[in-house]
Amino acid sequence: MLSLSIGDYPIAPADVWTTLWGGGDRVQSYVIFQVRAPRLVMALVVGAALGAAGGLLQSLLRNPLASPDLLGISGGAGAAAVFGLLTLGIGGPVLAVAAFLGGLAVAAFLLLAGRHRADGGYRLILAGIGIAFLTVAITNYLMVRAQVELAQAALIWLTGSLSSTPWWSVVTVLVVVVLCIPAVVACARWLPITQMGAPTAASLGVDASRVRVVTVLTAVLLTAVTCAFVGPIGFIALCAPAIARPMLGHGAIGIGTSAAVGACLLAAADLVAQFALPGLSVPVGVVTGAIGAVFLLWLLATSKGRTL
What we know:
Belongs to the binding-protein-dependent transport system permease family. FecCD subfamily. Helix content is 75%, strand content 0%. It is built from 13 helices and no strands.
């Protein structure tokens, strides 16, 4: 309600409710349905997708530091998308395909890096941090060689922004997220079984290696499609599962709860990005980066010697 009410053209909550149900004047209908609602829905969908992706990876690797941004998946998707934007001149759904291929390439390398290792989860995180630095270097190289106008547009995209969101992009991301729901549900059911060990999982009819691949591919697809349309928004995938875990009360990572928390976090962060500084609207990635940095420091400070 706050997202739909406040702005340069304030609308009372009662008028918002009336407009949503078909009433209201033409100006209110335009402001709500064409300007504010697409941005709000995109924030909810993207936040839910990133929260689910972070929950899948943290549950798979059993480590609260596992997230698409820290593992380099977001960086790979972002570097591929920037290459497509600046070098190939592509956009729209084709850009989403390029971002997915970049994230998939990083995920494939990570799976090979942690294959057949007892400490595969920690190897994946260390390898992901290295890849994240590499993708930053590639992105910076592409930005330096690009024209100033294109580099400025790519820089805003890289920060992560929900401004100027059309309905067609919202629908595209929503369709991909909905198509991923069966895989997310299946992974949420299988992951607790695979954590008991591959032999036990096999005796219960669950192929641990297949679950690993499906989980990573699902997380990559959710991350890549959001990255293609709003940019690599950081730390939502890291924070949402960590907040959802104590809410459940039993220590497990609830994928659905992580998705709900991620949606709320990104919607709230977008409000802060728009209205925290009077007369100045900043990309939402700036806010999520600040929140995530503080959260990561808090997570490390409160570990009290426990293994992350």
